[in-house]
């Protein structure tokens, strides 16, 4: 059974082992017997975790459910911009061989 946190108006916080199906029910305070409502506190695992790891886990959680596409300019324009392709920069020699003078001079054409 899990441990839940409850808060008595007079005596403050206390912890109780409660069945999962009764987790929302009020529990009697161990000091005075008055019914106390359940409170949600920070998970103990989050307190021990380094902030960088917690931020990374949060970022991964968001990325799994809310993926972002594009970059800053495409998000401002409401979509992506397609730019026209450049004309091929091919140079044909007098004997019919073609060369690419501006792009990848180390490659040999067939």
Description of the molecule:
The protein has helices at 44-48, 51-65, 72-77, and strands at residues 3-8, 12-17, 27-28, 35-39, 91-92, 98-99. It contains 3 helices and 6 strands, in the order ββββαααββ. The strands form 2 sheets. It has a 4-stranded antiparallel sheet, with no helix packed on it. Strands 5-6 form a two-stranded antiparallel ribbon. A hairpin with a 6-residue loop joins β3 and β4. The mean pLDDT is 76. It is rod-shaped, with a radius of gyration of 33 Å. Helices cover 24% and strands 21% of the residues. The N and C termini lie far apart (74 Å). With 110 residues, the protein is of the alpha+beta class. It has one domain.
Produce the secondary structure layout.
Elements: E1 3-8, E2 12-17, E3 27-28, E4 35-39, H1 44-48, H2 51-65, H3 72-77, E5 91-92, E6 98-99
Antiparallel strand pairs: 1-2, 1-4, 3-4, 5-6
Provide key terms for this protein.
two-stranded antiparallel sheet, 24% helix, 110 residues
Tell me briefly what this model is:
By secondary structure, the protein is α+β, with helices and mostly antiparallel strands. Helices cover 24% and strands 21% of the residues. It has one domain.
Mean pLDDT across the residues is 76
Number of helices: 3
Strand content: 15-25%
Largest sheet properties: 4 strands, antiparallel
**What radius of gyration results from the CA coordinates?**
33 Å
Low-confidence stretches: none
Query: How are the strands of the largest sheet arranged?
Result: 2-1-4-3
User: How many separate structural domains?
Assistant: 1
Total DSSP E strands:
6
Helix and strand sequence: EEEEHHHEE
């Amino acid at each position: 059974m899990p441990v839940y946190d409850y808060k008595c108006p007079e005596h403050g916080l206390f912890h109780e082992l409660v069945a999962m199906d009764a987790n929302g029910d009020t529990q009697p305070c161990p000091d005075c017997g008055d019914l106390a409502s359940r409170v949600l506190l920070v998970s103990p695992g989050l307190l021990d975790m380094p902030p960088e790891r917690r931020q990374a886990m949060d970022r991964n959680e968001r990325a799994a459910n809310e993926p972002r596409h594009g970059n800053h300019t495409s998000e401002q324009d409401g979509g992506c911009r397609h730019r026209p392709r450049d004309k091929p920069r091919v140079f044909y020699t007098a004997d019919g061989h073609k060369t690419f003078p501006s792009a990848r001079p180390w490659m040999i054409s067939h």
